Amino acid sequence: MALLASVGLALSGCDKVTPENYSKIKEGMTVSQVEEILGPGTENVGAAGAIGDLAGSVRVMTWGDEKKSITVTFVNDKVVAKVAQGIGPPSPEAER
């Protein structure tokens, strides 16, 4: 029964991995703001370092699974980059 609950939780997070939610994520948003849109993510990397001219705490977080996902890079807990895989383009209504 616990296994079914775990699978259900993992799959429910995928419902938020949509083109519309991807387009809501903006540069400068905090981790908390992105999690309000996508729910809790999985942290891939946590290190102090630099990306180009940006120095500070770097976190890379992913939402979704191997088929469809959104990956967001944060420097000092602010969005600096985002990448989507397998979610398709946003609907015209989402762009307004």
The overall pLDDT, averaged over residues, is 81
| Share in β-strands | 35-45%
The class by helix and strand makeup works out as alpha+beta
Number of domains: 1
Largest sheet: 4 strands, antiparallel
Oligomer: single chain
Helix content: 25-40%
Total number of helical segments?
3
**What is the N-to-C succession of helices and strands?**
HHHEEEE
Shape: globular
What gyration radius follows from the Cα positions, in whole Å? 14 Å
Report the top-level CATH class: Alpha Beta
Kindly report the CATH topology. Answer: Beta-lactamase Inhibitory Protein, Chain:B, domain 1
Strand order in the largest sheet: 1-2-3-4
Termini gap: 43 Å
Description:
This protein is α+β, with helices and mostly antiparallel strands. The protein has one domain: 2-Layer Sandwich (Beta-lactamase Inhibitory Protein, Chain:B, domain 1), CATH 3.30.1450.10. It is built from 3 helices and 4 strands. The chain has helices spanning 2-14, 19-24, 31-38; strands at 42-51, 54-64, 69-75, 78-85. Strands 1-2-3-4 form a 4-stranded antiparallel beta sheet. A hairpin with a 2-residue loop joins strand 3 (69-75) and strand 4 (78-85). The chain is globular and about 35 Å long.
